[in-house]
Amino acid sequence: MALKEGVVVRASSGVYTVDAGGHSVHCLLRGNLKKTLEFTTTPTGSKHVARVRRLRTTDPIAVGDRVRFAETHHGQGIIEEVLPRHSMFVRAGYRGTQHTVVSNIDQVMIVFACAEPRLDPWKLDRFLVAAELEGLCAVIIANKRDLVQEADFRADFDPFIALGYTVLAASAVRGDGIEEIRALLRDRISAFVGPSGVGKSSLLNAIQPGLRLRTGEVGAATHKGRHTTTSAQLIPLRFGGWVADTPGMRRFELMQTDPEELVYGFREMVPLLGKCRFADCRHIAEPDCAIRRAVEAGVVHPRRYESYRILYSELLQRA
Q1: Do 217 and 110 share a structural domain?
Q2: CATH, residue 308
Q3: Domain extent for 264
């Protein structure tokens, strides 16, 4: 049976909706794709399976993956192959597994709220570092701009503008920033990510009227967002491009990486690498560290440096 090719536009409870040129097929995953096979080579050059290990991932397929599948009957199919990814946005899942939120995207739109819930800059750092480490273009969308005064907005988001990030002030209620967001999404594959309750689905409803994505309110007692999007989905945009709506993330832990690589997630620190006294400087307590000197001189913001120290410690403990 000839295999067809398509892109996964929704993944839920082991069922994957694959778009094959406008034709949707509900697929299951071939069992051996849930495992990784280790081979040995015999003296004759043939291979045989030496060991089977389950993949250390929450799900071997993510929304955005390009796959090859065999269509069976009644619009159902079996995914036989997952094609290589050119990009992905990941975080740590349960017990150190890798959770790929979305794959094969051009940019990540990191949505935080100006209020209800108010910006948590430490959490925003985590999203930005994850994007930087994956080499993804990151745009910050400051939603619910209508709820704060100009001075408060500037105090919260100007430090990120100073780092060179694009920050778009938006309001799904008033329509602020909608045209600017459309312009950035047009003809690209993007992902909306962020904490619960910041209004990702509300913004998408405003960007493309008629979507009718479920939305919710922030809890009055906890001031935390409630999950309304329960699974990621890739949405075609009428004006060109695709956008992934993803579930809100109350906690965001970086995928395990070499702690020494973490500094590459902080764009303002990268130009200082190689200027420390010691080549293996961790930028924590070593003398004559270029990054620590930059903090003292006000070139690197002390809060961002403290964020680096916290994340470095977390990665070290999990290593």
Answers
A1: yes
A2: 1.10.40.50
A3: 259-318
Q: Say whether both 140 and 196 belong to one domain.
A: yes
Q: Do 62 and 180 reside in the same domain of the chain?
A: no
User: Is 252 inside a domain boundary?
Assistant: no
Tokens of residue 317, six digits: 């403990």
d(CA 3, CA 21): 14
For the chain, the domain total comes to: 3
For residues 284 and 192, membership in a common domain is answered with: no
Whether 23 and 158 map to the same domain: the answer is no
Q: What pLDDT tens digit does each residue of the chain (319 aa) get?
A: 689 999 999 998 889 999 998 889 999 998 766 554 333 444 444 444 333 344 455 578 999 999 999 998 777 999 999 999 999 999 987 767 888 999 999 999 999 999 999 999 999 999 999 999 999 999 999 999 999 999 999 999 999 999 999 999 999 999 999 999 999 999 999 999 999 999 999 999 999 999 988 775 544 333 333 445 567 899 999 999 999 999 888 888 998 889 999 999 999 999 999 999 999 999 999 999 999 999 999 999 999 999 999 999 999 998 7
**Claim: this prediction has a pTM higher than 0.70:** yes
